[in-house]
Amino acid sequence: MIMTETIPAAIEGLFERHPELSGFSVRGADDVPDDCPRTGNDYELFIGDIGISATLSDEQFDVMFREIVAALAEVVAEDPEADDILRGRTFARVLH
Question: Global pTM?
């Protein structure tokens, strides 16, 4: 089973590098519209509901999106069962 500190460390880095990132959700294939392309992999994850607090250029958004994908891939690479834990979760910036 995935260690709980693995997810926050990977995700926390995203929020540190991208102060404009408010949050995002992770969905499974059953949670996205039928017209979304799929690979056929049962463990496929989709990123959705990306919230940002500032206007970003397409290039800035692309960089942020790719870093979200990389962070999730890192978590799953460390523990292949993590996809079940990530699916259906929403990660949001914590304000103090």
Answer: 0.79
